[in-house]
Amino acid sequence: MLLAVSLLLTVPALAATDSTSNFTRSKTYSGEFSDLSERSVFYDNVVALYEYGLSVGKADGTFGLQDSMTVGQIIIFAGRIRSLYRTGSAEAGPSGYAAEGQAAYVPYLRYLQAEGVLGSELDGTYFSAATRAQVAHVLANTLPETALPPVNDALVTQAYASRKFITDVTEYTPYYRDILTLYRTGVSVGSDAAGSFLPDQPITRGAAAAMLTRMVDPSLRATPDWDLGKESWSAQGAAMGRSGALGDVYRRSRHCGGDR
User: How much is the pTM?
Assistant: First the structure.
């Protein structure tokens, strides 16, 4: 009996199913990336990406902050986040779709497709540099709303309707609804004072780290510091945002990292 009790005490607690409690920092960063300085605007995000067990960086010992990221690589990260939320293990879900001779991204893609996160819409692009719009499409569907609530919903709705903010995203922009979802959930605050998303530009690994870690760590999520003015909003939610504080907004968005 004593042996049985002792064995039970040594068995780790089972991970929860479909729970944000599975997002825990299992490692401690101690300078693993030679190109990561504490002065980097993405320092906290890259450290978090490592400590959550989502990245070990590049083979040369760097993280590659300014390097571009392929569509396939974004899918790998999204698959890990989805699996961590669903099972408590970043690799448990994708591992069920692994086969010899596959490209690295394939089991993660198959897993996300089986989960209904992605279809075949990105076929032919997996080895290409990911645009920020493509990244938004993948990430916006990776977690359910219960895990990634729209904490900035009203602010983003009003700011977007004002035509003063996120002006480079229209209904003709690929995946524009997914882009707005990232703003609403605190995963993106844009790249300048007006919250520009730069949807057609390739994403850097530093910017991707900011978005990815905001998905798993509520303390890293950001609220745009946009001054919408004191005017009353119409029934359509439209109003004019004041521009007088934009310089100050930009300085503060740089301080919190933005997601350039």
Answer: 0.84
